[in-house]
Amino acid sequence: MATNIKYADVEVGTELPAQSFPVTRATLVQYAGASGDFNPIHWNEKFAVEVGLPDVIAHGMFTMAAAIRVVTDWAGDPAAVVEYGVRFTKPVVVPNDDKGAEIEVSAKVAAKLDDNRVRVDLTAMSEGQKVLGMSRAVVQLV
Length: 142
What we know:
The longest helix has 16 residues, at 60-75. 23% of the residues lie in helices and 36% in strands. The relative contact order is 0.25. Strands 1-3-4-5-2 form a 5-stranded antiparallel β-sheet. The chain is elongated. The protein is of the alpha+beta class.
């Protein structure tokens, strides 16, 4: 699989389609099983509050993975992402209800680089707060 997005067709400022990703306690349990990260701050409300958190929080790597989906969906190929980094700024708090939380992600092309690569800057929000800072990906285009 390879991206079909042409470097020549992309301009600085191009906005990628925004997406929202639901996160429930069940999502966190599934992610814990897949990742092996069973830290109780991700599933035990009592423990999370005792260590100073407002409630159970989503795994940082889960949040990071959800955000990059905006880029991989746009590119059409996860392997097109050649670099990706973030700073974790706020946790995604996941209440114990039927709704859970939402991670809202938008992105835009911030720079055209050499070798048919572009830098995409992402914004990830939950409950009106930025949950990832300096979220940037480098994408290889054709």
